[in-house]
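User: Show me a protein chain along with its predicted structure.
Assistant: Here is one chain, sequence first, then C-alpha cells.
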Amino acid sequence: MKVIIYNLKKDGGEDGLDGSFPTDWVEAHRFLAGLEPDVLLRQEASYSHLRDNARLKAAEKMLDMKGYLAPNNVGRNPTALFVRPHTFPVSERVEYDARFWRTPPTVVSARFADVPETELLLMSWHAAYNSGDGRRREADEVTAFVDRMARCGGGIIGGGDCNEYPVQQGEALPPVDWSRVTDTRHLHHRTTVAPDGSRVSCTYWDRTMETVGLRDAARYAAHELEQTDALGATAGFDRPDQGGEIRIDRSYLDAYLARAVLRVRTHWTPWSDHAVVEVVFSRHLFAQALRREVEPVPPPQWAVVLASCEPVALPTAPHSTHRLTR
C-alpha cells in the first residue's frame, strides 16, 4: 500500500482559454497514477474547485480514486485528498471549524478493507507559510484529531507541506545557515529569535507531532530501516536565497502504524518546486497495527525529553550565529 504526498505548485497553472487543463497538471497526474497510491495527500489544488470541481473530478478518473477538496480559505490554495475505494471502501469527509487555518486541511474518516471495524483518520495539510504563530495554532489543531483517535482506538495518517523544519537531531540534511539567507521575508516566516539574538529554524510542527504520539514516517525509515535516503530534500532545490534544500513535506502517523512502513522515497518532478514523497506500507502489518497487534514505535529521545514533566536539559540543535542589527 502507498501513501503519497505532493504539493503541485499552483495546481499546475491556470486552465487554457478553451477550458483545457494545463500540461503540467495532466503530466503530474499521469505520473501520480503510475505510482498507484492508495491515499494521495495533495496541496495547492488552487483551481480544482472551479467549474463545479472540474479538475477534482478529472483527477478522480485519472487516479481511479475518490477525491475530496477542502474549503478555499484565505490561502487560496486548497488542500485535497484522494483514497482508493478498493482499499478504503468506506470514506467520508470530517467536518470541523476551518477558521483557525490559513489553508484548511482535508480530513477524511476511512475504513481499511482488511480491518473495517477500526476508524482511520486521514489528513492532508498545508501549514501557514507566513507565520510561526499560525503554524503553532494549526499544529495544535492537529493534536485535537490525534486526541480523538487515541480515545476511540483508531489510526491516523496525516501529511503535507509543513512549511517548517524537522528537529535537526538525526537528519541527513544540514541545518539552514540563516546568516546566508538573503530573502528577509522568508527569514521572518521561518525562524524565531533566540535570547542571544540569533535566528533559529521553526520546528514546532515536528516537535508537536512527535510529542503527542505521532511518528515521522521518513525518520522511522531512516533510523529503524536504515534508509538514510528517506531523509532527502523535498523542496528548496533552486532557492539558495532561502537556505537551499530542505525536508518540509512530511508524513506523520500513529506509533502503531509506523511499524507497517517498509520504504520512504522522494521523487523529483519537473512540474513543481516540491518533490513527491512516497510512503510504502506492508498491508499485513498495517492491518496488525490497526488491531494493535504490534508494538508502537517509541519516540526519538528529544521527544521523550520534551514530553517529560521533569526539569531536564533540552538537546540543542545547531543554529545560525547571524544576529539582528538595529
